[in-house]
């Protein structure tokens, strides 16, 4: 056994920064990739939390507008404004030969199409969370396998099977897996939560669209308010 191996192992820095700096270039590249992915994921998460909170407020305002009979001109520049505009355009394109049910279906289709376009915009960034959550552990595992291979190479070169020889390489390798899990677990949790929140927002709008579509279809002449007198 090389008497210098034990002091060398003892001098090895096992802190997070030390493990990164002393890692193999391939393992180090894996770590950098995972850190960048983590930053991108957290950026998406915070951006979506803000946008989804605004979308929830718009869904509540839209529902209140439909139920209270407020003026359709009161809608702002959010999702509800695009839906109302699409509904009014479909309402103005009236056909004297169509039935009320057909007119309602056409108006609701127009509003749902407008909603779908805006939901797709809200969905942007969510695929990154799904991709990171599913691939980050395997990317980290690749770094681990590569690091362990380097440790075995060190054993072969030094002809020393002591733990002091392989411990640094194994520590660096396992650190890559740990980073992969740190990226994947929050990404999966955030994706599930945000997807569920988006589904609730969409369902709220769809329910209000049904109510508004029925009232728009009933009035063939003028639509001064979201709800006409029963």
Automatic annotation (TrEMBL):
Residues 81-201 form the MotA/TolQ/ExbB proton channel domain. It is found in: Cell membrane; Membrane. It is a multi-pass membrane protein. The keyword Translocase does not apply. One of its GO terms (biological process) is protein import. The chain crosses the membrane at residues 30-50, 126-149, 169-191. Keywords: Cell membrane, Membrane, Protein transport, Transmembrane, Transmembrane helix, Transport. One of its GO terms (cellular component) is plasma membrane. It comes from the Bacteria. Belongs to the exbB/tolQ family. PANTHER family: PROTEIN TOLQ (PTHR30625), TOL-PAL SYSTEM PROTEIN TOLQ (PTHR30625:SF3). This is Biopolymer transport protein ExbB.
């Amino acid at each position: 056994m090389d008497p210098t191996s034990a002091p060398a192992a003892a001098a090895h820095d096992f802190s997070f920064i030390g493990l990164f700096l002393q890692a193999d270039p391939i393992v180090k590249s894996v770590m950098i990739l995972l850190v960048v992915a983590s930053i991108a994921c957290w950026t998406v998460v915070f951006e979506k939390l803000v946008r989804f909170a605004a979308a929830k407020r718009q869904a509540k305002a839209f529902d209140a507008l439909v139920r209270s009979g407020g003026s359709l001109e009161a809608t702002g520049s959010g999702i509800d404004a695009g839906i109302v505009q699409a509904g009014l355009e479909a309402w103005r394109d009236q056909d004297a030969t169509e039935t009320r049910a057909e007119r309602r279906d056409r108006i609701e289709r127009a509003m749902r199409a407008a909603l779908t376009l805006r939901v797709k915009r809200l969905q942007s960034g969510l695929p990154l969370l799904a991709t990171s959550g599913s691939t980050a552990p395997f990317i980290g595992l690749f770094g681990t396998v590569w690091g362990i291979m380097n440790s075995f190479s060190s054993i072969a070169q030094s002809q020393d099977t002591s733990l002091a020889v392989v411990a640094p390489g194994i520590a660096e390798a396992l650190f890559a897996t740990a980073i992969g899990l740190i990226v994947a677990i929050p990404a999966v949790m955030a994706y599930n939560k945000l997807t569920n929140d988006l589904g609730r927002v969409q369902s709220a709008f769809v329910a209000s669209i049904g109510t508004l579509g029925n009232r728009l279809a009933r009035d063939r002449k003028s639509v001064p308010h979201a709800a006409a007198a029963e």
